[in-house]
Amino acid sequence: MIKAVLFDMDGVLYHTMPFHAKAWMSSMAEYGLSMSEEEVYRYEGMIGTETIKLLARKQWGREVTADEASEMYSRKSAAFSAISSPSKMSGIDALITHLHQDLGLTIGVVTGSGQRSLTDNIVSDFPYAITHEHIVTAYDVKRGKPAPDPYLSGLRKCDADACEAIVVENAPLGVQAARAAEIFTVAVNTGPLPDSALHESGANVVVSDMHELLRRWEEIIIMAQQ
Q: pTM value?
Protein backbone atom coordinates (compact mmCIF):
# COMPACT_ATOMS: atom_id res chain seq x y z
CA MET A 1 0.00 0.00 0.00
CA ILE A 2 1.18 3.53 -0.74
CA LYS A 3 1.73 5.45 2.50
CA ALA A 4 3.56 8.61 1.47
CA VAL A 5 4.02 11.03 -1.40
CA LEU A 6 7.29 12.95 -1.56
CA PHE A 7 7.19 16.26 -3.46
CA ASP A 8 10.05 18.34 -4.74
CA MET A 9 9.58 22.05 -4.00
CA ASP A 10 10.64 24.37 -6.83
CA GLY A 11 8.60 23.80 -9.97
CA VAL A 12 6.35 21.35 -8.12
CA LEU A 13 4.88 23.07 -5.07
CA TYR A 14 5.79 26.57 -6.24
CA HIS A 15 6.10 28.36 -9.56
CA THR A 16 9.59 29.59 -8.72
CA MET A 17 11.86 28.20 -11.43
CA PRO A 18 11.72 31.21 -13.81
CA PHE A 19 12.90 33.39 -10.91
CA HIS A 20 15.62 30.94 -9.98
CA ALA A 21 16.81 30.94 -13.60
CA LYS A 22 17.11 34.74 -13.65
CA ALA A 23 18.88 34.77 -10.28
CA TRP A 24 21.35 32.07 -11.25
CA MET A 25 22.22 33.66 -14.58
CA SER A 26 22.63 37.19 -13.25
CA SER A 27 24.54 36.30 -10.08
CA MET A 28 26.94 33.90 -11.75
CA ALA A 29 27.65 36.49 -14.47
CA GLU A 30 28.91 38.80 -11.71
CA TYR A 31 31.67 36.26 -11.08
CA GLY A 32 32.40 35.66 -14.75
CA LEU A 33 30.55 32.36 -14.99
CA SER A 34 28.00 31.81 -17.73
CA MET A 35 24.87 29.76 -17.10
CA SER A 36 22.05 29.18 -19.57
CA GLU A 37 18.39 28.76 -18.70
CA GLU A 38 18.58 25.13 -19.85
CA GLU A 39 21.50 24.49 -17.49
CA VAL A 40 19.50 25.93 -14.58
CA TYR A 41 16.72 23.41 -15.21
CA ARG A 42 19.12 20.52 -15.83
CA TYR A 43 21.04 21.21 -12.60
CA GLU A 44 17.87 21.84 -10.58
CA GLY A 45 17.81 19.78 -7.40
CA MET A 46 21.55 19.75 -6.92
CA ILE A 47 22.77 21.47 -3.75
CA GLY A 48 23.47 25.06 -4.76
CA THR A 49 27.11 25.14 -3.72
CA GLU A 50 27.71 21.92 -5.67
CA THR A 51 26.23 23.54 -8.78
CA ILE A 52 28.69 26.40 -8.39
CA LYS A 53 31.61 24.01 -7.95
CA LEU A 54 30.55 22.20 -11.12
CA LEU A 55 30.34 25.42 -13.14
CA ALA A 56 33.74 26.59 -11.86
CA ARG A 57 35.31 23.23 -12.64
CA LYS A 58 34.00 23.35 -16.21
CA GLN A 59 34.71 27.02 -16.96
CA TRP A 60 37.63 27.95 -14.72
CA GLY A 61 39.33 24.58 -14.70
CA ARG A 62 39.82 24.65 -10.94
CA GLU A 63 38.11 23.75 -7.72
CA VAL A 64 36.56 26.58 -5.71
CA THR A 65 36.76 26.47 -1.95
CA ALA A 66 33.77 25.85 0.26
CA ASP A 67 33.92 29.48 1.39
CA GLU A 68 33.98 30.74 -2.21
CA ALA A 69 31.02 28.56 -3.16
CA SER A 70 29.09 29.60 -0.06
CA GLU A 71 29.66 33.30 -0.75
CA MET A 72 28.59 32.90 -4.39
CA TYR A 73 25.50 30.97 -3.40
CA SER A 74 24.59 33.67 -0.90
CA ARG A 75 24.73 36.16 -3.77
CA LYS A 76 22.45 33.95 -5.83
CA SER A 77 20.02 33.65 -2.91
CA ALA A 78 19.96 37.43 -2.48
CA ALA A 79 19.29 37.90 -6.18
CA PHE A 80 16.42 35.42 -6.01
CA SER A 81 14.89 37.12 -2.98
CA ALA A 82 15.08 40.48 -4.74
CA ILE A 83 13.19 39.40 -7.86
CA SER A 84 11.02 36.47 -6.79
CA SER A 85 7.29 36.44 -6.33
CA PRO A 86 6.63 32.78 -5.50
CA SER A 87 3.14 31.47 -6.05
CA LYS A 88 1.79 27.97 -5.66
CA MET A 89 1.62 25.76 -8.72
CA SER A 90 -1.83 25.65 -10.25
CA GLY A 91 -3.76 22.67 -8.93
CA ILE A 92 -1.31 21.78 -6.14
CA ASP A 93 -3.71 22.54 -3.28
CA ALA A 94 -6.44 20.34 -4.74
CA LEU A 95 -3.94 17.53 -5.32
CA ILE A 96 -2.43 17.60 -1.83
CA THR A 97 -5.84 17.97 -0.20
CA HIS A 98 -7.02 14.83 -2.01
CA LEU A 99 -3.88 12.85 -1.16
CA HIS A 100 -3.70 13.83 2.49
CA GLN A 101 -7.24 14.48 3.63
CA ASP A 102 -9.17 12.10 1.37
CA LEU A 103 -6.65 9.25 1.05
CA GLY A 104 -4.79 9.69 4.34
CA LEU A 105 -1.32 9.75 2.77
CA THR A 106 1.67 11.37 4.46
CA ILE A 107 3.01 14.33 2.50
CA GLY A 108 6.76 14.91 2.47
CA VAL A 109 8.89 17.54 0.77
CA VAL A 110 12.39 16.80 -0.54
CA THR A 111 14.28 19.80 -1.88
CA GLY A 112 17.88 20.60 -2.65
CA SER A 113 17.28 24.18 -1.62
CA GLY A 114 19.24 25.76 1.17
CA GLN A 115 17.22 28.96 1.13
CA ARG A 116 15.43 29.11 4.46
CA SER A 117 13.15 31.89 3.20
CA LEU A 118 11.49 29.33 0.93
CA THR A 119 11.46 26.25 3.11
CA ASP A 120 10.15 28.19 6.10
CA ASN A 121 7.06 29.06 4.08
CA ILE A 122 6.07 25.49 3.23
CA VAL A 123 4.35 24.66 6.52
CA SER A 124 2.49 27.97 6.62
CA ASP A 125 1.39 27.61 2.98
CA PHE A 126 0.27 23.97 3.39
CA PRO A 127 -0.74 23.82 7.09
CA TYR A 128 -3.38 21.18 6.45
CA ALA A 129 -0.89 18.60 5.18
CA ILE A 130 2.82 19.34 5.72
CA THR A 131 4.83 19.51 8.94
CA HIS A 132 8.44 20.48 9.58
CA GLU A 133 9.23 16.87 10.48
CA HIS A 134 8.46 15.75 6.92
CA ILE A 135 10.70 18.25 5.07
CA VAL A 136 14.18 17.40 3.75
CA THR A 137 16.46 20.28 2.69
CA ALA A 138 20.08 20.71 1.66
CA TYR A 139 20.96 20.86 5.36
CA ASP A 140 19.81 17.27 5.94
CA VAL A 141 22.16 15.50 3.53
CA LYS A 142 25.81 15.52 2.52
CA ARG A 143 25.10 14.35 -1.01
CA GLY A 144 22.32 16.11 -2.92
CA LYS A 145 20.39 15.02 -5.98
CA PRO A 146 21.08 13.03 -8.18
CA ALA A 147 22.34 10.89 -5.30
CA PRO A 148 19.51 8.95 -3.62
CA ASP A 149 20.28 10.41 -0.18
CA PRO A 150 17.62 13.17 -0.14
CA TYR A 151 14.82 10.75 -0.98
CA LEU A 152 16.14 8.08 1.37
CA SER A 153 16.00 10.75 4.09
CA GLY A 154 12.47 11.60 2.98
CA LEU A 155 11.42 7.98 3.34
CA ARG A 156 12.81 7.86 6.87
CA LYS A 157 11.09 11.08 7.87
CA CYS A 158 7.77 9.80 6.51
CA ASP A 159 8.24 6.31 8.00
CA ALA A 160 7.82 4.62 4.63
CA ASP A 161 9.72 2.06 2.56
CA ALA A 162 10.55 2.75 -1.08
CA CYS A 163 7.73 0.47 -2.24
CA GLU A 164 5.27 2.45 -0.09
CA ALA A 165 5.99 5.85 -1.62
CA ILE A 166 5.59 7.89 -4.78
CA VAL A 167 7.78 10.84 -5.75
CA VAL A 168 6.55 13.89 -7.65
CA GLU A 169 9.45 15.66 -9.39
CA ASN A 170 10.00 18.09 -12.26
CA ALA A 171 13.74 17.92 -12.92
CA PRO A 172 16.04 15.27 -14.43
CA LEU A 173 18.42 15.21 -11.44
CA GLY A 174 15.51 14.88 -9.04
CA VAL A 175 14.05 12.03 -11.06
CA GLN A 176 17.44 10.30 -11.07
CA ALA A 177 17.68 10.68 -7.29
CA ALA A 178 14.22 9.23 -6.70
CA ARG A 179 14.79 6.30 -9.03
CA ALA A 180 18.20 5.65 -7.41
CA ALA A 181 16.24 5.35 -4.15
CA GLU A 182 14.01 2.81 -5.97
CA ILE A 183 10.84 4.91 -5.62
CA PHE A 184 8.11 5.08 -8.25
CA THR A 185 8.45 8.55 -9.79
CA VAL A 186 6.02 10.87 -11.53
CA ALA A 187 7.59 13.79 -13.42
CA VAL A 188 5.48 16.91 -13.90
CA ASN A 189 7.00 18.82 -16.80
CA THR A 190 6.61 22.41 -15.63
CA GLY A 191 9.77 23.68 -17.35
CA PRO A 192 11.25 24.13 -20.84
CA LEU A 193 12.90 20.72 -21.14
CA PRO A 194 11.33 18.11 -23.44
CA ASP A 195 9.41 15.20 -21.90
CA SER A 196 12.16 12.95 -23.25
CA ALA A 197 14.65 14.45 -20.77
CA LEU A 198 12.46 13.27 -17.90
CA HIS A 199 11.74 9.87 -19.43
CA GLU A 200 15.47 9.33 -20.06
CA SER A 201 16.20 10.20 -16.44
CA GLY A 202 13.98 7.32 -15.36
CA ALA A 203 10.53 8.81 -14.74
CA ASN A 204 7.85 6.12 -14.63
CA VAL A 205 5.19 8.60 -15.75
CA VAL A 206 5.38 12.12 -17.21
CA VAL A 207 2.40 14.48 -16.92
CA SER A 208 1.90 18.08 -18.00
CA ASP A 209 0.58 19.64 -14.80
CA MET A 210 -0.97 19.01 -11.38
CA HIS A 211 -4.47 18.87 -12.80
CA GLU A 212 -3.52 15.91 -15.01
CA LEU A 213 -1.76 14.25 -12.07
CA LEU A 214 -4.90 14.52 -9.95
CA ARG A 215 -7.09 13.14 -12.76
CA ARG A 216 -4.75 10.18 -13.26
CA TRP A 217 -3.98 9.46 -9.61
CA GLU A 218 -5.92 6.18 -9.37
CA GLU A 219 -4.19 4.93 -12.52
CA ILE A 220 -0.79 5.95 -11.12
CA ILE A 221 -1.44 4.19 -7.81
CA ILE A 222 -2.18 0.95 -9.69
CA MET A 223 1.04 1.32 -11.71
CA ALA A 224 3.09 2.01 -8.59
CA GLN A 225 1.77 -1.06 -6.81
CA GLN A 226 2.48 -3.48 -9.65
A: 0.89
